[in-house]
Write a structure and sequence with these properties.
This is Helix-turn-helix domain-containing protein. By secondary structure, this protein is of the alpha+beta class. The protein has 3 domains: 149 residues, no CATH class; 95 residues, no CATH class; 80 residues, no CATH class. It has 13 helices and 14 strands. Strand 11 and strand 12 form a beta hairpin.
Length: 355
């Protein structure tokens, strides 16, 4: 038997793999230990033509995971191990901080069961079957609140055994994949973010630059998917989900265990794509535009009065009402200023009327 301990503390035992699979595992492990190997190198290796674990029929030259593979007693565990090795490479190069990420896993199994209206055993089964993310701390499983909110119960009873090849659109049962790049007149790119709104990957190919298949890492929390054409640019805000979702554009796509949260066009699309830096810059400009002018408002002492200050949360919420593309960065906007913000009396009056 083989065993592997994942970043989340889970220990998995699985039967000894056949020689080609064992050799490939050794090769990927060596790549993890090699400081010269990048994260993209690891991804290309695991999802490349040399991987004997995954499917190679749907996209020649690339490897893909299917429900049949995940259900296999050897290939399923090995696939999970390979993905964990990729995540360990991300840790190695500083792309992710597992301690910070897992700090947000604060819901215990009994509490999760109560929130979901199911038994403790059902929650543990969902964790065991990889349907709920969790981290093992001091012998107890802990889950992130956002996973509880998005979790949906599947069908009951035994799972049917796959009997036919799975079509590409339904091949990603626990992961998201993308066909990215540029084709004549169109392109599709992705920015991936972790729980701290840190950019963990940008995957883009220039116009007419061809396409590539990319598998999302397990740690992604949300993504901006940009599609371009001669007519317009759109950006889709997507996040992990139990159900299957898809963004398709000119034969390019993002699909798998995800859902579309928002769609943006024009300037709002540009804003979401540019991300946190753009959100902070625009919010600073917005706050400056609200700042009262003592001379214009006839303040005798030339000073801003205390009643011209508004709770910064109110200002942030008003800004996000006008700029929903920046909603993901609410915490960063809130933390940008230390306290209440001075605003023009007219804005204060409007805020008071609407409160």
């Amino acid at each position: 038997m083989h065993s592997h301990i994942f970043l989340n503390g889970r220990e998995l035992e699985y039967p000894d793999p056949p020689t080609p699979v064992a050799a490939f595992l050794t090769r990927v492990s060596a790549a993890l230990s090699d400081a010269a190997v990048t994260v993209n190198d690891m991804i290309s290796l695991v999802y490349g033509p040399d991987n004997p674990v995954l499917d190679h029929e749907y996209f020649p030259g690339r490897a893909m995971v299917t429900p049949t593979i995940l259900a296999d007693p050897v290939r399923g565990p090995v696939y999970r191990v390979l993905n964990d090795l990729i995540e360990r490479k991300r840790v190695q190069v500083g792309q992710i901080d597992p301690e910070a990420a897992f700090a947000k896993y604060t819901v215990g199994v009994p509490e999760a069961a109560g929130l979901l209206g199911i038994s403790v055993q059902a929650v543990r089964l969902a964790i065991d079957e990889w349907r709920l993310p969790a981290v093992l701390r001091r012998g107890q499983w802990w889950l992130p609140p956002n996973a509880i909110e998005s979790y949906k119960l599947g069908g009951r009873g035994p799972k049917p055994k796959p009997t036919k090849p799975v079509a590409p659109k339904t091949a990603m049962s626990t992961q998201a994949q993308a066909k990215l790049g540029g084709v004549p007149g169109a392109s599709l790119s992705v920015r991936l973010y972790d729980e701290g709104n840190r950019l963990i990957d940008l995957i883009a190919t220039g116009k007419d630059g061809g396409s590539t298949i990319y598998t999302f890492p397990d740690v992604w929390t949300w993504a901006a998917v940009k599609t371009t054409s001669s007519e317009e640019t759109r950006v889709f805000e997507v996040e992990p989900a139990i159900e299957t979702g898809e963004v398709e554009h000119a034969g390019l796509w993002v699909r798998g265990s995800l859902k579309i949260v928002h769609k943006f066009k024009a300037n709002k699309a540009k804003g979401l794509w540019q991300g946190k830096g753009k959100a902070l810059a625009d919010f600073r400009s917005y706050v400056r535009s609200l700042n009262p002018n003592p001379a214009r408002n006839g303040l005798p002492d030339g000073k801003i009065r205390p009643d011209h200050y508004v709770d910064k949360g109110t200002v942030v919420d008003r800004f996000l009402t006008e700029h929903p593309e920046f909603s993901r960065f609410r915490n960063e906007l809130f933390e940008l200023y230390p306290g209440d913000l001075p605003v023009d009396p007219g804005w204060v009056g409007l805020a008071t009327q609407q409160s």
